[in-house]
Amino acid sequence: MNIVLKNSMYLVFMQMCNYAIPLITLPYLTRCLGFYQYGVLNTAINIILYIILVIDFGFNLSATREISQKKNNFVAVSKIFTDVIFAKIILFFGVLVFTFLILKLIPDYQDVTRLVYFMLPQVLSSILFPLWLYQGYEKIGYAAFINVLGKCITIPLLLIFVQNSKDVTNAAIILSWSSLVPLLIYYIRSNLPRTKFYTSRCRFKYLNRTLANALVVFIGSIAVNLYTLSTPLVLSIVSDFDQVGYFVAADKIRAAFIGVFLIVGQAIYPRASALYNEDIIAYNKFVISIIFYQIIVCTFSAIAFYYFMPEVAPIILSQNKLNVEELSVIIKLMSPMIILIPLSVILANCVLLPQRKNKQYALVPIITVIIHMSYSIILCEKLGALGASYAILLTEIISCALLAYFTFKDRLIQLNPAR
């Protein structure tokens, strides 16, 4: 089987489980915790995801690219491994201090801060589990399996230890500590060539170089996630935790639907990067075919989501206090994102990054996040969860349009390329 197809299938399976499992537990958690505590829980989760975003610092793409080009050189791969792990550890201490200083300044975040403390093991897993190493070697199957195993463990634990709104701490511990399962399995039994950790490379000169290589990817990632992850945080500040719970519940349904398409883009990135260096003609054919099939599949998926999900979502959420009409509008607003977001990911990760268009890659999310913050706060304050949905949709349209503009302006995709 073609290695790209094989890796894509593994990642699709992992992503389906990653989104299906939260979707399975979603009605249970919203019913047991209520939308308020569910909103508190997801605010804490988003803060943890921000910490992880800073710690990852774009290494999932930059380190993947380096390893995919040097995977036959044990010493080179070990040096990359050492540099990335060391950089993550340094970033962890810096972002942790900054995060808790900020949380101290928000009086309504006492419950959130307490949950963040309990969820820190998830950050440890992010530091030490080298998903980028699996991606660079194009051996995703094992990583997919152990990640899914960790997710599956959460289902019986949530059913046993989460019974009412007072069990929100139990839910936070279960959802975060489960990420330690793949980490433990990796260090006990791994199917990758064992890498050596060079303590001699734990120096700031190597740290600076490692961060510099990933800086552009990090700028792009932090900007993109600033307008996606920040929306629940904005809602929690200008509105209330009920609206956070309401928005996040609807967004999880959208994320479950779109997640499969996003992970395919992640799976094909190493192949796109390698093809661009090896055969520009094959690279162009590869990217064009991916975009073509993605648009077709996502368009049909978006139409199905628009018409059927408003009927299914109230059943999934199983809450008597649901405003079904408002939920229906939110879901319909999210349906175009099923086309826009995967297309943006492909244009960014498989077109701009392999061709070293770092300036454009970083510029697009910076522009969109500035624009997004200008209207998202107002919309969230005035319309709550509905306003958050309007803001995200508008931002995704702008982001995709900018990526398409840079792609065609610089002729980054060509039907008849010349070397």
Number of strands: 0
Quick one: biggest sheet? none
Element order: H for helix, E for strand: HHHHHHHHHHHHHHHHH
Uncertain segments of ≥5 residues (pLDDT<50)? none
How large a portion of the residues is in β-strands, by DSSP E? under 5%
Number of domains: 1
Tally the helices: 17
What layout of secondary structure does this protein have?
Blueprint: H1 3-56, H2 59-70, H3 74-104, H4 110-118, H5 121-128, H6 131-137, H7 140-161, H8 168-177, H9 180-188, H10 204-228, H11 230-238, H12 241-278, H13 280-317, H14 324-334, H15 337-352, H16 358-383, H17 385-409
Textual characterization of the structure:
This protein has 419 residues and is an all-alpha fold. It has one domain (3-409). It is built from 17 helices and no strands. The chain is globular, with a radius of gyration of 21 Å. The mean pLDDT is 83.
Which keywords apply here?
transmembrane, 84% helix, Putative O-antigen transporter, 419 residues, membrane, cell membrane, single chain, globular
Quick structural gist:
Helices cover 84% and strands 0% of the residues.
